[in-house]
Amino acid sequence: MGGLGESTSTIDESIDITVNNERLSKGFWIWGQFNESSTRTLESAKKSVDEILNGPTFNVHLTLCGPFSHFDSSELKKLSNISKRFDPFKIYLEEVQTKEEFYQSLFIKIIEKEDLLELKNHIDSEFMMHKKNFFPHISLFYGKETEEKKVEAISKTINMNNSFVLDKISLVDVNEEINSWTVCKTYSLFNLPRSPR
User: Which of 28, 51, 136, 146 would you call most buried, defined as having the most Cβ atoms within 10 angstroms of its Cβ?
Assistant: First the structure.
């Protein structure tokens, strides 16, 4: 995995990637990622889905914020500071759903609970992001496929856990090739005691 370290890293502008007439903005994104046990469970579910649908390779994640056209060392510091304000927390499966959209083709819909919304709102506020509709989900497949095949793939996930532990936030460089998406920096969530004022 590439590391940004403390150097300034930028891309010139946010560029829309078009796949089958659907857009995903190129740039840096902030993901929520999971503890070892939850990651194993989710990767296993994704693998079961891929046996039916043969989707692209990507790390399981929950998108929290983005895109950013650049991300420099001061912004990395902000992200690091955010990670120190939150403890790991559970997120809860609502159901496995499908849409007729390339980047939301088959996914785990996550219930909007306070811990998740608090982290999301704090990130948006810190980076002065415009409020957008938040649709928390964990994709298991990107692509176009028949609903029949997607329903068959969902049947392979029925024994999955109904909760996962989100314990880190990651900065990710997203470009045209899904297989080339790069996690640049990851920060574990751990709530440090506050200094007395």
Answer: 28
Contact 187, 80 (CB under 8 A): yes
Buried b (16+ CB within 10 A) or exposed e, 136-163: bbbbbbbbebeeeebeebbebbeebeee
> How do residues 145-159 score in pLDDT, each as one tens digit?
999 999 999 999 988
> Which single residue is written with the structure tokens 């109904």?
162
Longest dimension (CA), the chain: 59
Calculate the alpha carbon distances from 196 to 48, 66, 82 in Å.
50, 33, 18
Tokens coding 74: 């001061």
Residues found in the chain: 197
Q: In angstroms, rounded to a whole number, what is the distance separating the alpha carbons of residues 19 and 1?
A: 25
